[in-house]
Write a structure and sequence with these properties.
The complex is a heterodimer of chains A (230) and B (340). Helices cover 26% and strands 29% of the residues of chain A. Chain A contains 5 helices and 13 strands. In chain A, the strands form 3 sheets. In chain A, strands 5-12-9-10-7-6-13 form a 7-stranded mixed β-barrel, surrounded by 4 helices. Chain B has 2 domains: 192 residues, no CATH class; 114 residues, Cyclophilin, CATH 2.40.100.10. Helices cover 21% and strands 28% of the residues of chain B. In chain B, helix 1 runs parallel beside helix 6 and helix 2 packs across helix 6. The longest helix of chain B is centred in the C-terminal third of the chain and has 30 residues. The chains are: A alpha+beta (230), B alpha+beta (340). At the A-B interface, strand 1, strand 3 and strand 4 of A face strand 16, strand 20 and helix 6 of B.
Chain lengths: 230, 340
């Protein structure tokens, strides 16, 4: 069992903290736990929110006090200790048209890392990522980890409008804007896929814990796929 | 049906929230003052979580196209009136509004968010299990946006309780447009909405990221609500609060009422449409029992934070829920008793 700490988050949620750094193995454990707790449909537990380093449990204070729920969860985690902790995840492939007007910051990423644009594309699309968490805006997947050869800090001044489907890099993370929004990530390309659709359940194309790879496509393919989506 | 003649400053459709989708980055949303929304619903015979109108600062002018029970709660309005009726319509009370009547909700004179519930509740397509309008992502409610002049909003079939009450009130006087029910909520519930600038909090899980002096400053200072406050978050102006370390933390869960301190040192309180995760240290969390109170604060209003024990916060919440349950039982038995 991975050691953890329990912290109250206000009076109707608690946080189970596993680590203070981003760790692939610990993050997978967090997603595993999230699935297990939700599958158990425990009365008074409303929902779970997995993030990089911790899992929050939203509960009904009418049914649970913090101390009662903490004791219950310690026991729950103990019992899970010996069970199979693998969740089968298929690989999600995200087609991306890199560079030019779709990736206005790709030259900056290349210059910052002393490499060529083609190398940025090759490295970014040959890495296998995991969805560490969704957040910032609905359906925004935080993927890690970006190969150290192309990591780039956020832009010093964020853009007021980033187009929907834009793929960006921020340090060791890469992510996709599910719809137009202000944003500060370095934009390197754009996907024609619709990543968030509130009329579907789940609403997000990518789910917490998913395995993701990017596939470099040309402009013709981009427009063809986008037509199909509409 | 409700016809929107004038929408007011920012009128949206809200219920008690969109639970279960925070892991996809979707905020809970819903009414900023969920207790007022629930009370309005209970008064007109709806379930407490039915969809109703949330009004901000200036209320709408609306026309009802069928006989409808209406209850106005939340902030105190200067005067709620009906065309062709000399009397001011009371708040925190169900009134039968006859078909074709135009209601003018007017301005808030105390607090800044009001709720208008209608018998049957508002009918809009559910998006992710909720009728709440989420303005930032433009979904839910009425086309994902604030109401405009000319919008026509459908209502669901009234509950058996609403129907009994409507029939009885119709018999009181068939010739007037507005008829008041003979019950209201206890003053303790209403008075509570007009109370102090003190908001009770429980300690945040990043208290240790602040120096003792800054924590003391946080609890001893009065903060001013910034004009840059909305359904997502309230920004507060006051003394600068400093972190011990200089770096942001890794994004982690937040919740409605979380008080974050960004590098600027000015607190941000996450409200109904706040994101489920955030990367700023959390100094404290407003208790669920009190968060609705902040929803009635306007830019320029002053707030202070008082720490209480987590156990006390949870007891206060349980007591409030019990009060609402009792109110629902009370209203329903009142309706049935008078009929028999």
């Amino acid at each position: 069992m991975i050691p953890c700490e329990f912290e109250p988050l206000g009076d109707s949620a608690l946080i189970i903290r596993f680590t203070d750094t981003i760790d692939d193995c610990v993050n997978q454990h967090i997603h595993f736990l999230c699935v297990k707790i939700e599958e158990s449909a425990i009365a008074g537990i409303i929902e779970c929110v997995p993030t990089f380093t911790c899992l929050s449990i939203i509960y009904d204070p009418v049914k649970w006090s913090f101390t009662e729920l903490k004791l219950f969860l310690i026991n729950f985690l103990d019992e899970l200790g010996n069970s199979d902790r693998e969740i089968e995840k298929g690989e999600m492939v995200i087609p991306v048209c890199y560079g030019e007007e779709f990736g206005p910051d790709i030259d900056f990423v290349a210059i910052h890392n002393h490499c060529t644009v083609d190398e940025v594309i090759k490295i970014h699309s040959s890495t296998v990522y995991r969805v560490y968490m969704l957040g910032f805006i609905p359906g925004f997947a935080h993927l890690g980890s970006v190969d150290h050869r192309i990591t780039t800090p956020r832009r010093s001044s964020p853009r007021l409008k980033v187009e929907s489907g834009s793929v960006g890099i921020a340090n060791r993370q890469t992510g996709i804007y599910p719809y137009a929004s202000p944003g500060g990530w370095q934009l390197i390309g754009r996907t024609p896929l619709l990543l968030f659709d509130e009329t579907k359940s789940p609403p997000s194309y990518l789910n917490p814990g998913d395995v993701v790879r990017f596939l470099s496509i040309g402009k013709d393919e981009f427009y063809r796929l986008r037509e199909e989506k509409l | 049906m409700i016809n929107i003649i004038r929408p007011g400053m920012l009128t949206t459709i809200q219920d008690t929230g969109r639970w279960g989708y925070q892991k996809y980055g979707v905020p809970i949303g819903g009414a900023m003052d969920p207790f007022a929304l629930s009370i309005a619903n209970i008064l007109v015979g709806n379930e407490p979580n039915a969809a109703a109108l949330e009004v901000t600062v200036t209320g709408p002018v609306i026309e009802l196209t069928r006989d409808t029970l209406v209850a106005v709660t939340g902030s105190l309005f200067c005067s709620v009136t009906a065309a062709n009726s000399p009397n001011i319509i009371p708040q925190w009370k169900a009134v039968l509004v006859k078909k074709g009547t135009v209601l003018d909700i007017g301005k808030c004179c105390k607090g800044c968010r009001g709720y208008i519930a209608f018998s049957g509740g508002i009918h809009v397509p559910h998006v992710l299990n909720s009728s709440s309008t989420y303005l930032r992502a433009s979904f839910g409610g009425y086309e994902g946006r604030a109401l405009k002049t000319g919008d026509k909003i459908a209502l669901n079939e009234p509950s058996p309780f609403s129907k009994i009450l409507m029939d009885r009130l119709r018999r009181v006087d068939p010739n007037v447009t507005i008829i008041e029910s003979n019950f209201t909520v206890s003053c303790s519930i209403v008075d509570d909405s007009n109370s102090t600038d003190q908001l009770r909090v429980v300690p945040g899980n990043h208290e240790m990221m602040f120096h003792e002096d800054d924590l003391h400053l946080f609890y001893s200072s009065t903060f001013k609500v910034s004009p840059n406050s909305d359904r997502m978050g309230y920004r507060l102006d006051g003394p600068h609060l400093h972190w011990k370390a200089s770096e942001d933390i890794i994004s982690e869960p937040t919740i409605c009422g979380t008080i974050q301190i960004p590098q600027s040192g000015q607190p941000i309180v996450l409200m109904a449409d706040g994101q489920p995760t955030g990367g700023y240290p959390k100094i404290a969390n407003i208790i669920t029992r009190d968060i609705w109170r902040l929803a009635h604060f306007k830019p320029g209003d002053m707030v202070k934070f008082t720490p209480i024990l987590l156990e006390t916060a949870q007891s206060l919440y349980r007591y409030k829920i019990q009060e609402l349950n009792q109110l629902q039982i009370g209203v329903r038995s009142q309706i049935i008793r008078e009929e028999s």
